[in-house]
Amino acid sequence: MDRTIFDIVMISFSGTSMFVLFLCALAFCYSKFSKDNRKRVVLLGVMLLVFIFNNFSYRLLASVVSTGTFFRFLWMLPIILMLSYVIVNMISSEKKLFRKLCIIFFVAVIASFSRGNNNTNIRSVFTSVEIPTNIYTIPEDVIQASWLIKDDSTRLGIYETVVVADMEIMPYFRGYNGRIIWGIEMWYYNNERQGNPIRDTESGMIFNAIQKGYFGDIYLLKEALFYRGIDYLVVKTELEMNHIFEYVGFRVIGETSNRSVYARIE
Fold first, then answer.
1. What pLDDT sits at residue 119?
2. CA–CA separation, 167 vs 189, rounded Å?
3. Domain stop point among 127, 148, 170
4. Which of helix, strand or coil describes residue 264?
């Protein structure tokens, strides 16, 4: 898919609302800067646009490494720090308690509806809060599956493994095990969360099988898994996909609390 730098920024900000809030925070901070600091900010912004945040640089990096790597350039933007500074400044500048509470409530509402999920609401934000079950504060299935993958890959002498899992747990794997490589591009998961899935691709076929148990043409699925070089699959056990994945060249190596882990048959 031919993406532009604007598409990448929108995906990173989980939609336009967070991007607009960031621009407002940037304008607020700019108004507080001294004349010399304003010149520095403008110069820095121009340099970022010329050397990094443009379509030419994006396509150049994509041709050398991968499009997913470009997201890391956005980490240099102090988004959270700027938003936090503006919020604290607004609250501290108000003398009346009622106005302070109004600002806090307004920020909470904006934040809850700026997470890139059309189904997000205030109630879901609070009901989704759970007590962590481990010191890493990540799903237990990720830890269990990672150890199954590590044990099997160590036995085979494989250092790095290409893994695909459902969107509920896949984002946590790299944080727990740095040897795991995404089998499907990160932006595909982001698109799926925003309700903009892409089905007519290899990633789409694999994702459908992993996420929903829908595999369509099984021969195309087998080719997609082979072409993408997938080593392991982590799938919800309730989907009962053993016979399908065995047919496309994968075997069960173990189960976690809620998922089955499949390894490519050598």
1. 45
2. 6
3. 127
4. strand
